[in-house]
Design goal:
The chain is mainly α. It is built from 30 helices and four strands.
Length: 652
Amino acid sequence: MNTSRETTTSSSTPSRASVAPVDRVPPAGRLALLSIQHVLAFYAGAVIVPLLIASSLKLDPVTTIHLINADLFTCGIATLIQSIGITKHIGVRLPVIQGVTTTAVAPIIAIGLAVTDGKGGVAGLPAIYGSIIVAGLFTFFAAPFFAKLLRFFPNVVTGTVLLVMGTSLLSVSANDFINYAQGVPQARDLAYGFGTLVVIVLVQRFFKGFIGTIAVLIGLVGGTAVAYLLGDVNGEKVAAISSSAPIGITTPFYFGIPAFTLTGIISMIIVMIITMVETTGDVFAAGEIVGKRITKDSITAAIRADGISTLLGGVLNSFPYTMFAQNVGLVRLTGVKSRWVATGAGIIMIVLGLVPKAGAVVNTIPAPVLGGASLILFANVAWVGLQTIAKADLRDGRNAVIVTTSLGLAMLVTFKPDVAQVFPSWAQVFFSAGMVVGSICAIVLNILFFHTGRGRTSRIDDAAVALSGGRPVSLNDVNDMSRESFVETFSSLFNQQKWPLENAWEQRPFSSVADVRLALQSAVFMAQPEQQQRLVADYPSMYELITAEDAYAATISSDSGSLALSSATDEDIAQLKDLSEQYLAKFTMPYVARLMPHDSIQDIIDTGARRLSNSAQQERLIALTEVVEIANERLDILLREANPIRREWQVD
């Protein structure tokens, strides 16, 4: 009888179960609450960008309020583009929130100051928006070809760019944190800055879940509230709240017709390329959480949406856009997979962007409070950069030269910005910000070391990518392979489970090595949970791997992480064994991790202890990520063996 009911349902209207979780629409009340929650998690990270830019460019309160409202308004439109989509080719249709990328802060400030001879003010905004518009168009049209550009942005480059961005931006935070008056720091300013910093750290330490995700918002609200009660909020900014119109809308090109400078355009294009890399990772993460298969078309649609949103940002007096990772984490935390929740959040942002008084309230945040919050945000950008660099081969001296030279030059310009005056006016924007110098240096050095001469990798599309019976094979050969030949050629990438290779084979043709990597990642993350469980279970636990004899270890793991843990004590081994048993009991899979060359047994134990506190869903994603990282490293080994002329390829 149940069968007849199901038949009736399917013949009339689709049942709820027949609709994918990502497409389900929650009841109106629940939808509103969930959407507000996403806005709260996103809000501090969104408004802090226009505040920092306004502070560095010395913009007046009225202009700052306009930038905040334009930002929120365009954030809402960008979120609708990504969550609802414009045709199937624009917008990834996932529960993601779009916000202004902090990556753009340093170059935007540099452009604004360069065209005004360091004076700042609204005169620099047209050049900023001209650069953003061109970068948005570039992103939109480059989306289908992004895989080919990806080879010029391996982990060592993207990590270095993020590192120099974070460290360079710390100077912006410091100027707010220590708000000089009469030539010396004021004790009260330091109290606000440190107080905000302490509140954010304590919230992150003692609260988990949603409260933990809004730690920065809590710090900003708390610091501003205390400053207001003590009479330390700028009176002009407070007065602007009452004088602001109840309703207002940003108009296209509010600050004048865009101006276009070559150096500004180049710096913003670099920002958008880094954003494309970040978007790719966020889309894969969000797709795994909601159970949606991510393909090359999905990535292209997401990047095109970023491009259109950034173009709109330039037209509507806002800034470049990307997905907010904290909101992807919130989807995992809440388990609510509906993209319509993100759509609801986008609508709320549009409404907030139409209320100038909301922007005026945000503008009252005292500079030291803003500095305390941004200090953590930008230091986290640098931390992500370090984590990304760690994925590269740290034993390769060329990578060391790329990171150290780029960071050194970036810090030189950050500490001594007057060095830009030595260069012609047209080139000064390249040397007026540490982030720009460091980023360009990392890109150029990567090309010099890995894409020219004996270390050349610029023709990897035609180069050998694997060994088949000792014979190098090209990508054309790979695309022509049968399923059986493909699995045999790449059989060393995974242990005994061959289905990831079989699924990756179905995604041919590959246009680059990056395509091969994306196909392997997609195969693993988009598989059925039962397959994923079998895959992780096929790997040895860290206890089994660490305690294995060298000969046996080589048969169960072919990654290049160091197994030379001779300093491990019996107590360490016992602790690792107990940890592995606890992990297996909780997650019903072995504790698997990629060994890095510099790892100690204590690092492995500490990492495992942290992972024990994760949810089962989150830990499955982490374990699969470790498996993919191991496969990536094995692919690198395979590439080196197929190309003895050079020692290392780093293609992501």
